[in-house]
Amino acid sequence: MMLWGTKNFDGTNGDAPFASDLIVWKTLKNGRKVVNIADSDNDPSCKLSELVVDQLMASKDSPGAGLGTGRPLEMAVASSLETDLPKLDPSRTWTVGRGSEKISDFLQYKHLEKVNQLVNRHAELRTTLGTDYLIKPDVTVGLPSRHEWEPRFLHAAVSCKWTIRSDRVQNIRHENNQMIRHRRERLPHLVTVTAEPLPTRLAAIARGTGEVDAVYHVAYGALDRAIGTAGFLSREQRDAWEEVTEQGRVRPYSDLAKTLAYW
Question: Which residues fall in a coiled-coil region (predicted)?
Answer without folding.
Answer: none
